[in-house]
Amino acid sequence: MSTLFDEIQKTRPPKVSEVTGSATGKVLAGIDQLLVVLPTRVPAAAWNRVPQGKKVQALMRRRTPGSVPAVKTRLSNKRQTAVYVGNVDGAAEAFETLTFARKMVSAVTGEKAGIVGILVVGFDDARQEALTSQLVSAVLAAAYVMPAFKSKPTPARIRSVRVLGLGRQVGFGRELAEAEGNNVTRFLTALPANKLDAKAYTTLLKEMADAEGWQYKKYGVNELEKLGAGAFLAVAQGNADDSAAFVRLRYRPDAKNATPDLSLVGKGIIFDTGGTNLKPFTSMLDMHIDMGGSAVVAGTLLALSRLKHDAAIDAWFAITENRTGPTAYKSQDVITALNGKTIQTIHTDAEGRMALADTLAMACEAGPKAIVDYATLTGACINAVTTRYSGVFTNRPDLHPVLKKCGRESGERVWPFPIGDDFIEEIKSDTADLAQCAPSAGGDHILAASFLNEFVDKKIPWVHVDLSACSRKGGLAHVPSQLTGFGVRFSLQLIIDKDLAGGIDNG
Ligand code: BES
Ligand code: MN
Ligand code: ZN
To answer: Residue 345: CB within 6 Å of ligand 1?
Structure first.
């Protein structure tokens, strides 16, 4: 029997090799499937660089407008290299070009793939590199075979990636780290709740920590009781056992005990039945994905660690089920959170904000320079932005343009919403400092984020991501699977490119 830790090794992306300069017949003979990307208007000179350029040009005239790929053909070499040609507007936004890349790659995965080649021609150097990078990301995303427990394992589809025609060696370290992080997020999120239960999850995180050189600390139920994490424990009290826990991982590039530059916090609800206020069948069906926020934390930490990112990072996982039963929490229960605030329970299905309230308060105690949390927190956020975007919320509204920009540039798009005292009026309580949620009010994603804000130290810039785009039929941007792993790519943009923890804050 293979363990989850064995399985997670399969999230490693395939190799990416590079052959710079023109794509000779000899180079092409080593490729099983070649993806060729051209601009919408192909400069005449570019056809010389397309294998069988004349033939492709002729076929291109007969394409159905808008089809991706536009042309499919084969080279007459021994391998019968399949060639897929597509046109894209190089100036389009990342989301659009990544979506194009996913469609190009899905042609490849339609047949038994082996060595996949990428050739982008007809653009200026910067565009060529950017598009190539996106194609690489799409091939790596498609190469990951989502976990399944069939008696006959699914064969791997893509063996390796070969980039052709660039003017220089690029390395693609970022794409590889990002792909691995995204794969880990998708792997964890996809696992059924009986495979990834709380015990298996904490064990797996310990094994990952040992392998990656991260520090691992588990706060079990007894310890959390002593710490007064009443909000999290209210949710956990419905469990059949005491396996619920906070896990804290520490990535330290240099000084072992440095205070964190950044803390990542994730909702890790193993399965969300709704609790005493039980969900109906269709709403409950997929609720093993309710640990998706914590899976983004794991994937992001792994990617940053692979890239040897130069910041001390704490990663927090709030792990429990949300179950019904004689010991489960109920409406009107009054509980005391870790930061001393009292909460009147309203609806047991609003368990995520309870679990995160204490986790955020704990994360704040270490005094990080910034916090980002991720959660499949509300259906309201999906109603607001659909599953194409995720919602973002922050105690530093000056960050809104930066957050949107990170979404636009990464292709994992986010949209900001307001939070704050104004909204707290909706969750005033007669019996406690705060009500958990409003019995009936619109904008629950905003109320939930405003609730969380009450547990975050005001001195610390904080971003909350409500992961509406965690699951989308047909995939999203470059990712072809329903579970998108949304969040890792956005986070790397925010943490590395915008240096979230290093002084982005101006509020
Ligand atoms: N995990 C759910 C939110 C969710 C629903 C995420 C569907 C992804 C897909 C969350 O715990 C929840 O149940 N929220 C409730 C809150 C309400 C009771 C105030 C919701 O959105 O209905
Ligand atoms: Mn719920
Ligand atoms: Zn939930």
So the answer is: no
Residue-wise pLDDT tens digits, 388-410 = 999 999 999 999 999 999 999 99
Whether a cis peptide bond, with omega within 30° of 0, leads into 69 is: yes
pLDDT digits (tens, 9 = 90+) for 19-69: 999 899 999 999 999 999 999 999 999 999 999 999 999 999 999 988 999
- Here the tokens at position 97 are 């070009």
What is d(CA 230, CA 433) in angstroms, rounded to the nearest whole number?
14
Pocket test of ligand 1: the residue of 189, 345, 348, 377 to mutate, having most ligand atoms within 8 Å of its CB, is: 377
437 CB under 6 A from ligand 1?
Answer: yes
This model's pTM is above 0.85: yes
Mutation to probe ligand 1, out of 378, 385, 427 (largest number of atoms < 8 A from CB): 378
Spacing, Cα 208 to ligand 2 middle (Å): 28
Atom of ligand 1 nearest to the CA of 287: 1
Determine the longest span between alpha carbons in the chain, in angstroms.
78
Q: What was the pLDDT predicted at 1?
A: 61
Q: How many CA atoms lie within 13 A of 372 on its CB side?
A: 29
Atom of ligand 1 nearest to the CA of 376: 6
The end-to-end CA distance of the chain, in Å, is 52
Residues with CB under 5 A from ligand 3 (ion): 269, 272, 290, 352
Between strands 215-219 and 245-251, the pairing is antiparallel
Please tell me what DSSP assigns to residue 230: H
Any ligand 1 atom below 6 A from CB of 33: no
Alpha-carbon distance values, 249 to 209, 213, 297, 302, 323 (Å): 7, 10, 10, 11, 26
